[in-house]
Write a structure and sequence with these properties.
Helix 3 links the parallel strand 3 and strand 4. It contains 13 helices and eight strands. Helix 3 packs parallel to helix 4.
């Protein structure tokens, strides 16, 4: 089965790929525990093999292991599979490596913006959609892709590809881009960037968040408050999480910090990352623990009470 329905609004948790202590293999038990936690707290769906999942540093066999583990760990949540390659043929090959494992629950392939030219981007997205038969989540993340596209050009390209089911906007500053995309497109727009601009993205029309913040309970609480009480209610909730959001979003060591957060939360066993990502300095890990102690919903017993 293939779904080309727009992604449901809410929080789509971006999964870390837990590794063994020496970083040599995927820790499937920790990955399954992470999936089950997202299901338990009410995530709309999952994003597998994203940037936070270190997909570009995994072998094809490891990527299959990740998808197999996610599918087996929970029978309900839909998921998006990230594609790292920027060239259409390589992107299709990356997708085809795992498509036989998705068990009818794939909500879309997350494809990076591979060109700043809207006509070329249209051809790229169409090629991946046609060859794989899957819906497409367009990820605009210039820090990772190295490609910056003007928002009007992104709108033009997305409008030409009926298979697009969502846009993940991570071009900084994201609120202006989200506002324009949400106003001009018929598909949902999600924010990322660790949740750093979540409140403002929601205020200008974002459908939710698709990010790897280590306390997704905060993302869910902010969205719930926004639905029921608007900007003021969401702001009241979100300010309790912002110090940790900002602390985790430190360029270079963000991945190591977030993985260590997940270790302290009991969700994964080790915080190993693969080069070129560096481990976070010990002093930063001490500060991280202080932030976690002051953040609501961090302890698993709190989250499941």
């Amino acid at each position: 089965m293939t779904s080309k329905e727009p992604l449901r609004p809410g929080v789509w948790g971006v999964l870390a790929t837990p590794l063994t202590a020496d970083g040599s293999a995927v820790d499937t038990a920790s990955l399954a525990r992470q999936v089950q936690h997202y299901a338990r707290i009410g995530a709309a769906g999952l994003t597998v093999l994203g940037v936070f999942g270190e997909a570009a540093r995994l072998t094809p066999a490891e990527r299959r292991t990740v998808v197999e583990t996610v599918v087996a760990a929970d029978q309900q949540l839909p998921f998006v599979v990230g594609i790292s390659a920027l060239e259409p043929q390589a992107a299709c090959a990356e997708a085809e490596n795992v498509l036989d494992l998705v068990d009818g629950r794939l909500a879309g392939l997350m494809v990076q913006v591979g060109s700043a030219d809207p006509a070329e981007l249209t051809r790229h997205l169409t090629a991946v959609a046609d060859r794989t038969g899957q819906g497409i989540v367009v990820q605009d993340y210039p820090v990772v892709s190295g490609i910056s596209i003007a928002t009007p050009d992104l709108v033009t390209a997305v409008r030409q590809v009926p298979s697009v089911v969502a846009v993940k906007s991570e071009s900084s500053p994201s609120p202006p881009a989200v506002a324009e995309l949400a106003a001009c497109l018929d598909v949902p727009v999600f924010g990322g960037l660790g949740g750093t601009c979540l409140l403002d993205e929601l205020a200008v029309g974002a459908a939710g968040a698709m990010t790897g913040f280590s306390v997704p309970e905060g993302l869910l609480a902010c969205l719930a408050a926004h639905r029921t009480g608007g900007f003021d209610a969401a702001r009241d909730v979100w300010r309790d999480y912002l110090p940790l959001v900002n602390f985790e979003f430190q360029r270079g060591i963000a991945l190591g910090l977030r993985k260590h957060s997940l270790v302290l939360r009991g969700l994964i066993q080790h915080d190993a990352v693969r080069p070129p990502a560096p481990a976070a300095p010990p002093r930063m890990l001490e500060l991280l623990a202080e932030h976690l102690r002051r953040t609501p919903g961090v302890l698993l017993e709190e989250a499941t009470a």
